[in-house]
Amino acid sequence: MPKTTTRIYLALIHHPVINRDGQTITSSITNLDIHDISRVARTYGIRGFFLVTPLKDQQALAREIIDYWTKGRGGRGNPHRREALLLCQIAGTLFEALEKIKEKEGISPLTIATGASPPRRDLSFDAAKRLIAQGRPLVILLGTASGLSPLVFQRADYVLEPLCGPTDYNHLSVRAAAAIILDRLLGRPCS
């Protein structure tokens, strides 16, 4: 497992999330999310990346993809991809992911929910950087489908301000959002 100085984790939530009609659903795991977010996580020194789904068939699918790249032929042919996917873990619930982080870190992590139009915005990127600098473990919660359930926002310790471009169109993929968020929080000039 790669070493990192940050105590930041990512959790890609597949349940509870909402659909376009605002109903709570469970979304499907996608191969692209696993690969791209793992690579972003590895680039920015994230300690772990949790795929959160209660569905056993989705957990099995994720495990098959992860194993192919970490234990199988894929990892032997592409060691950089293997290194990134070693960060991936599967959890049935967000609570389970948080417990695994607590076991590893010795303290409960703070949670930071994200979304395109969160119900509250109590954490700017600058404030989040200050929180990171304090050294406490943090979990950035990313939503799939049409975003995190209101329940997740209610239970989160913080809600990060949304990403906004120069237009009124705000429908980034979760992969793109993860990359932008981590770059704003942890990025540095390349030398």
TrEMBL record:
The keyword Methyltransferase applies. Keywords: Methyltransferase, Transferase. InterPro entries: RNA_MeTrfase_C_dom, tRNA_m1G_MTases_N. It holds the Pfam family Methyltrn_RNA_4. GO terms for molecular function: methyltransferase activity. The keyword Methyltransferase applies. This is RNA methyltransferase. It comes from Thermosulfuriphilus ammonigenes. Gene3D superfamilies: 3.40.1280.10. The lineage of its organism: Bacteria, Pseudomonadati, Thermodesulfobacteriota, Thermodesulfobacteria, Thermodesulfobacteriales. Transmembrane segments: none annotated.
